[in-house]
Design brief:
Layout lengths: L2 E10 L2 E10 L6 E7 L7 H12 L3 E4 L12 H12 L2 H16 L4 E11 L1 H11 L6 E5 L17 E7 L7 H13 L4 E6 L12 E2 L4 E2 L2 H18 L2
Parallel strand pairs: 3-4, 3-5, 5-6, 6-7, 7-8
Antiparallel strand pairs: 1-2, 2-4, 9-10
Helix pairs in contact: 3-4
């Protein structure tokens, strides 16, 4: 399938952001739509590649920019600084996520009644925060995300169904953290499911991840299994 892609510029609190939208070339009908939230690196090649993949499979896909200006970290230290600037202000993170979601829904290729959001690592935390904030989404999917809930923010009803795909050996969000998240989502009445994969660390979907000491290792078996779970979930929530 041939694709059309473009940069979508939008603003929030005087900061300019650069999202990446992909969809089938020549299609005038809105399609089921997926918002993709990047890792701590920023809206990089990995995020845009995911958008292209989902566009090839018949969706409208939008890789968001949470850092502004399409900024991408070049080192571990830069990545951490970019991410921590938002982790330290979860209300600002929420507002940027809502700005991206509103921008995505305003695109003519987006089916506003059939939108899901998926995120990877920091993006996994981000889409969980979208669900926690009551965003009007059919579903959210967290791949090897972080689980700690924001403090001091409103807790409206969670509208989105939630799918969590996670490595049992992930040092950045442990099995105990996963249990705590399950209790949180249950208390809030969410429709959620969680799949924990054996022999799997953080960043298991990223073929470039190969740092066992840091806890980030690609796992092709888990990548395939989690993708199948994702397909089943999207069939349910975007039908």
């Amino acid at each position: 399938m041939r694709l059309t892609t473009r940069t979508v510029h939008y603003q929030h609190q005087g900061v300019g952001f650069e999202g990446y939208l992909a969809t089938a070339l020549g299609s005038s009908t809105p399609k089921p739509s997926i918002m993709i939230v990047h890792t701590w690196v920023g809206r990089d090649e990995f995020a845009c590649h995911k958008a292209d993949q989902w566009a090839q499979w018949g969706y409208t896909a939008f890789a968001v920019d949470l850092y502004g200006g399409g900024k991408v970290g070049q080192t571990t230290e830069e990545n951490a600084a970019l991410m921590n600037g938002l982790l330290s202000d979860r209300n600002l993170l929420k507002e940027r996520l809502w700005a991206a979601l509103d921008t995505f829904k305003a695109q003519p290729e987006t089916d506003v009644d059939r939108v899901a959001a998926m995120g990877f690592c920091f993006g996994g935390l981000s889409v969980l925060d979208l669900a926690r904030s009551g965003a009007d989404l059919r579903g959210v999917i967290s791949f090897h995300g972080l689980f700690n809930a924001p403090q001091g923010l409103p807790t409206p009803p969670i509208q989105a169904k939630i799918l969590i795909l996670h490595g049992f050996d992930d040092p950045m969000a442990t099995p105990e953290d996963a249990v705590s998240l399950g209790h949180e989502l249950t208390r809030r009445g969410a429709d959620w499911q969680m799949h924990l994969y054996s022999n799997t660390m953080h960043a298991f979907t990223n073929p470039k991840a190969n740092d066992p000491g840091f806890g980030t290792v690609y796992n092709p078996i888990t990548d395939d299994r989690s993708h199948q779970c994702l397909l089943d979930f999207l069939t349910e929530v975007l039908k």
